[in-house]
Design brief:
Layout: E1 9-11, H1 31-40, H2 45-52, E2 53-58, E3 63-68, H3 92-95, H4 107-113, E4 120-126, H5 128-142, E5 147-149
Antiparallel strand pairs: 1-4, 2-3, 3-5
Helix pairs in contact: 1-2
Length: 153
């Protein structure tokens, strides 16, 4: 079956902050993300977690997931300051957006994301191969998110 994106899709980040400063948005971290970010800021993983992370509970499965903090009293990512201050080391969830499973499930979902992200269907053509690479990285990372059981918290 041919994917709706087999000829590629247009996307270019507009630095609008919609995805980085979303009320209720959460950036979950894998071990790979944690290592990359800690190294970027010349910190141990423990130091990075203490200053930049929190464990948030998912009501569905009663597990706690390691997530980035928001800035105090805002919905902004802790690393947003007129741009991403950790862009080179940003989490996989950030680096693969908007090529996430749910958004890429069908053309309708992709086009609906345009209501949220002004970069959808704009500017640079992203090849189907690059889309597949991002989707694969996103899926793999989702399975490696750091979590602890409720009774360990």
């Amino acid at each position: 079956m041919k994917n709706f994106y087999s000829n590629g899709l247009k996307f270019e980040c507009k630095n609008c902050t919609a995805c980085c400063c979303l009320e209720g948005g959460v950036v979950m971290l894998s071990q790979k993300d944690l290592s990359r970010l800690a190294s970027h800021f010349n910190q141990t993983e423990e130091e990075f977690i203490k200053g930049n992370c929190q464990f948030l509970q998912n009501d569905d499965d009663k597990k706690y997931y390691l997530c980035l903090l928001d800035k105090a009293d805002t919905a902004q990512c802790i690393f947003w300051d007129k741009g991403c201050t950790c862009y080179e080391a940003r989490p996989t969830q950030c680096r693969t957006y908007p090529f996430w499973t749910k958004i890429m499930s069908d053309e309708k979902s992709w086009n609906e994301e345009k209501n949220f992200c002004p970069g959808i269907n704009e500017c640079r053509l992203i090849s189907a191969q690059e889309i597949e690479k991002n989707l694969s990285e996103y899926k793999e990372n989702r399975s490696l998110i750091i979590c602890i059981d409720e009774n360990e918290f």
